[in-house]
Amino acid sequence: MTKKFIGKRIVRNEDPQLLTGQALFVDDVKIPGMLHAAFLRSDYAHARLLSIDVSKARQRPGVVAIFTAEDMGNDWQPGPPLVSPPPTAKDVIFHSRRQVPLVKDKVRHAGEAIAVVVAESRYIAEDAIEDILVELEPLEAVVDLEKGLEAGSPLVHDDLESNLAAHLFQKKGDYETARDKADLVIKRRIVLDRGAASAMENRGIVANWDAKSQHLTIWDTTQAPIPIRNGTAARLGLSEHQVRVIAPFIGGGFGPKMMMFYAEELVIPWASKKLSRPIKWIEDRRENFYATTQERGQIHDVEIALSEDGHILGLKDVFLHDTGAYDPYGLTIPLNTQCHAMGGYDVKNFATEVSVVFTNKTLVTPVRGAGRPQGIFIIERLLDIASKKLGIDRVEIRKRNLIPPDAFPYEHKIIDQAFAPLILDSGNYWPVMEKALEMIGYDKFVEEEQPRLRKEGKYVGIGIAPFIESTGVGPYEGARVTVEASGKISVATGIGTQGQGHFTSFAQIVAEQVGVDVEDVRIVTGDTTEFHWGTGTFASRGAVVAGNAIHAASSIVRKKILELASKVLETPVDELELEDGLARVADIPNKSISLGELAVLANPLRGAVQPGTEPGLEATAYFGPNYGATAFGTHAMILEVDPETMMIKIKRYVTVEDCGTVLNPLILEGQIHGGVSMGIGNAYYEKLHFDENGQLLNASFADYLIPSATEMPRIEVGHIETRSSLNELGTKGVGEAGTIPVPALFAQAIENALYNQKLEILEMPLSPNRLFELLNEEKSQ
Amino acid sequence: MKIEGEYTFDGPREDVWKLVRDPEVLATCLPGTQSLHLVRENEYEGEVNVHIGPIAGVFSGQLVKLWLLIPESCTLTGEGKGKPGFVNGTGNVRLLDQGDNKTLMTYAGEVQIGGRLASVGQRMIDTVSKSMIRQGLSTLNDAIKARVAARADAKEVEYTPPSETEFAAAVAKDMAGGLLSSKRFWWLALAVITVILVVVWLNVR
């Protein structure tokens, strides 16, 4: 068999290009004659648009055009619904209200675009924005989720009877009966608030309509280049082949770049076609805080029923979900929350009801975690409370409830974010948790170190939080693998890349099949001219769905190589091997032919290609799972709280991940490190503060704090592999695993550290200030 | 944001009352004021040029008196709009005669801010605005003292209002201890406080 590449710690193919500044990002695109756009955005969160006067702005030298909603005429259309309500769910209410290119009648969140200026430079465009006279009549804003549903609340969408965007109820078993039999019922209100994704690179788009070739090229920081191409073509009345969308290197996606179409994605290509000029728009950081989607606002009223030996009998969750001003992304996030509220536990009775609420705030779409951290926070918090009330160790109560290994595939009988039945395909949960306990030295810490440190007056706590992560959902991805005459392999897949190391992990899959070195495989992602079937990079699915499509295509190419080599070398296929870029006879290594030579033979200049065969050593294949693969993991942490300042110091941080087959541990660890950093932000630093008028009060990195190097612990990563049964590679996703359990873990560890205080953490994000307030609230009660 | 505080002027209440009714005096005490005038009964309009550091922009404001008790107190609402965002506020000001040529001003207001002012300036606004109110009122007090002194000496006394730069420097000094990490926050602080001061001062007319 050929050399093994899968599972090897291989340094990244793309790093030399990235680290020397040679990689193409959207803002690097410069086209002669290119114009620059700036958007006039509303200062108000909710206001009626009375009038816009752009006459003065039009006169500014260097201004080429100014467009308002009115100027777009019939081309003014709201964005498409990305995800429709689940067709299989019963009695679902869903009011689809989508974002608009430019405000026509009413502003629905601060930062919503009202007009666009296209000018010779960004400086001129921004100056011209100041020249526009816009008359807005401020309206009372909908900010609070509960008040937003009260009768008499102002309406975000005037044509609806209330601010209810959607309602969905799902159940498994019979919670009420389970509760009647319970020894302990715990009820709590849990509140989770918003954060930003804060990718290093903001959004950006360059559109170039070339009138002579009748062709539109778009460079876009999107996670979904193919749907952007198809949608843009449809909106502009072009053939899909007249539009090329390139998602080049992107400095972080984290979900918000999966949202489509943003107002700017609707406006810039349209304006380029209108003016027959290339136009660039690059989002600045302050725009990013308003105009790029956010996540996590939910209010849960939860109830758990347990037996006295700590077994979960049932769980009930009634919650509100903030979708912001529009709901193009459907029910993805609340469905994820519902599907993760049971964690990795054997919960037989479950009832979950969500009301989605329109508010005068920035749109909500998935941000790394995408509803999952909320679900995990709920169940882990409830188990922590139960552990204290029942006097059962927190590890033990979890161990008693974990789904046993012989129960897989385990069906939960509710539907997931892809509307497929929630089935946990495979897993062996306890060994993962056990390994995390071993790595952090749980027993020794609790029995020896913690009592010693407490005697010294230190507030040191330990936390342990297991979690599941639904990953790798359909519908499908595809890939084309080609052996070139040089002997190198080129691969194209439809998904975009935002730093995940696709150019290496995907190359490893191919290299292993066709017997070349990893650096001889060139991967192209996110260019619709190279590959135009697929959906995008989301839901931790790249390595699972695109990875398996690439695996399938390379397996076919392998077969083609072997068949041709068999003819040329006059040796049966099963006596051949592919290694070092050669096809050779296993027993006679010098009887060989290079892949390059075979590629030339497969694509002859004279002679005839046999009927029924195809030229070249190339194959295209697709992979679509019936439902997503579910990964499992456990994080553990030791932290110290300064009782005066409430600042925390993370002493140890351990994660153990079971994401099935590991393609490249180096890349996997990088994913975990980044995810944990985001989780730490979600737990203790990052919170978007909106006032009662819907004004965001901390829209800069001076006030919105993201963890920096000094807040980051050294992260120890352990692996356990339980292959997924749903795909040939056996992979499960891991892109969000670093983030999901962190808020739950923090809450547990902080409570454990402040052992002599009466403290129950039922909200996230926290901050040193907020923790101080919580402790004072407890004291004053 | 809530604004409240008090300030003691070195002059009798009648003088303070008269002075703050004079738009010209107010305009000179408030560096950057381009115009300030009565448009109709109990309704004023003004424009203030904010020009500090790299930021320049005009703030236009309107002010409506709701309730007035001469020469003691009044309540009014105001709003201002400009490049850096918007400010809406309701304020109440009282002038209390303390005798001995002293007048105590108490002021309280509720101010809503939006746009760049709110999103980027939030952290600084509270501290900066307090300092700027103190500094603005102190400038006004200098004018009152000059007027009182002039009457005592029975001759004209020249009062020279501070320039925009001097005003900004005085505010920075007041904030002592480097609370302002960067000069770039001044523009927005000044913008907010400008409107607040207009509210406060016009209140007493």
Explain what the structure shows:
The complex is a heterodimer of chains A (781) and B (205). Chain A is α+β, with helices and mostly antiparallel strands and 781 residues long. Chain A has 19 helices and 30 strands. Helices cover 28% and strands 25% of the residues of chain A. In chain A, strands 3-6-1-13-10-11-12 form a seven-stranded mixed β-sheet, with helices on both faces. The model of chain A has no long low-confidence stretch (mean pLDDT 95). Chain B has a seven-stranded antiparallel β-sheet. In chain B, α3 crosses α5 (186-203). The two termini of chain B are 24 Å apart. The chains are: A alpha+beta (781), B alpha+beta (205). Chains A and B meet through α8 of A and β7 and α3 of B.
Distance between the termini of chain B: 24 Å
Please describe the biggest sheet of chain A, giving its number of strands, its sense, and whether it closes into a barrel: 7 strands, mixed
Q: Mind telling me the C-alpha Rg of chain A?
A: 27 Å
Low-confidence runs of chain B: 51-55, 177-185
Order of helices and strands of chain B: EHHEEEEEEHHH
Percent range for β-strand residues of chain A: 25-35%
What separation lies between the terminal Cα atoms of chain A? Answer: 70 Å
Strand numbers in spatial order across the main sheet of chain A: 3-6-1-13-10-11-12
Give the number of helices of chain B: 5
The multimeric state of the shown protein is heterodimer
- Compute the gyration radius of chain B: what is it? 16 Å
DSSP strand content of chain B: 35-45%
Shape of chain A: globular
